[in-house]
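seq as requested:
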Amino acid sequence: MYDTTDDSIEHLISAWKSPYNLQVAEYRDTITIGDLKAVRITFKNKAKNASYRQLIYLEKYSTLFEIMNINEGTEKDFETFYKSIRIEEYKKTGR
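struct tokens:
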């Protein structure tokens, strides 16, 4: 989790790209989690035995959530996981 006043999605993406020394292909799309739009970014290294990272950024109120998968072989499981996320309104109970 990140505070949106401290970090932007673009800043976080740039930070993840830097270890690849620009030798990475980047793919972006928009997905829906709950009723919110999220940005999905996939990095694949261009080299043989390529490294892989899939990041999803979801913003709710002033909080930026980051969900990550680092194993391309588990991509379908990761998809099932993020599609199962439900975002419900917090309701404070009187105690």
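The helical segments are 9-17, 75-83.
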